[in-house]
Amino acid sequence: MLETEGLQLLETALNRLGQDSRQLPAFHTETDHERIGDILNDVADRLKGDFPYPHPLYAGQMMKPPHPVARLAYSLTQWINPNNHSPDGGRTSSALEREAVADIAGMFGWEIHQGHLCSSGTIANLEALWIAARLRPGKTLLASGLAHYTHSRISRLLGVTFDPVPVDANGKMELKAVQRRVERGDVGTLVVTLGTTGTGSLDPLPELLALKQSHDLRIHVDAAYGGYFTLVKGMKPGQREIFDALKHVDSIVIDPHKHGLQPYGCSCVLFRDPDIGPLYLHESPYTYPGSDQPLLGEISLECSRPGAAAVALWATQKLLPLHRGGEFSRGLACSMHAAQKLYDRLQGHPGYLTIFPPELDIVVWAPRGHSASSISQQSQQLLRSAAEENLYLSLVDLPASLVSAHWPEVTFDQNSVTCLRSCLMKPEHLDWGDAIWNILHRARG
């Protein structure tokens, strides 16, 4: 079930890495391999109790297995364990990080940029909003009511006023509500989400950018989930315009550990203006010779960062370049098609309720019921029944104000409704659509 062929490739690469050209004196570290083996077997037994995240029948949370080349490159690098704070701690891995990040920036049309890798989307968004708060001091931060909860939490951490904006019937920021709020004159930064966590919705970036110049706004895009979809050809009407508009925003966050096929945690924050670097700089009692540009640790809030994450990302992008319509993007297109096929089946079945078509690869639906409370109970029951047949889904609570427009026949006896949600992130989900549907049919009864 788990891929192991790559272990031979790893052994070959390790032997190559160990051929040190500097002819250092040999040394040996004593290792109790027998005890380590016992512990590893114990770990393997414990991990058996986890969900089968790599399998196509796992269609729940945002969990995508890393590509074998990423897993192997990460493991290989761990033998020397570089720290990408500076070239002193990770000479090669720091250089590879700059190359890999430049490729991601180029994906959005930025030849000039400032950016680096982070340990998570939360930290990446924290950095972007910290810079925004320094450039727009005392100003309010706006985000969608369906934006990730981390934005309100980060705002509290930074001491910035946070104001959520209502969403329309498709889970997008309501343009008129944004405009009314911006016209009050106290907004400094607008967070636009491309791929909301709950529904995968894309906020209307081109229309929101129109407010940027007239109201001196910073536009930060949280594309942690959806950013890579800019590479997909043949999008639905309006989607290409949204992704093409990314080149005009001030900052972007994207998570390679989601659709970029990387191990956790590997996120990336990008700034269009390279001159934001001095906002990070600080006095340091130690120096790092041999660098003619700011150190990666000096332009990030995190100082020590794993060089292995950078090497794994670089290796993956070397194997699967970030080209529109290329092999990497075709995998993303398969996920989008898998989501659309599941949505079409659900929409055409009398036993289910749908909300709106998926924009990316997240599908939200529910068993048909007469009230919000009964739908919520049935959703939870179907989640359990499907898991008994090895199909793993997830749940999302959506506000009645969003769902009621799509379900006029439902009585909303509570303020929210629990729906089923599937992230069909794996390209294999396209081929496993029939198996997933058949299990749903049996689990529904």
From TrEMBL:
Protein name listed in UniProt: Aspartate aminotransferase family protein
Sites bearing N6-(pyridoxal phosphate)lysine, chain numbering: 258
Origin superkingdom: Bacteria
A GO CC term assigned to this protein in UniProt: membrane
Single Gene Ontology BP annotation: carboxylic acid metabolic process
Family: Belongs to the group II decarboxylase family.
Assigned keywords, A-Z: Aminotransferase, Lyase, Pyridoxal phosphate, Transferase
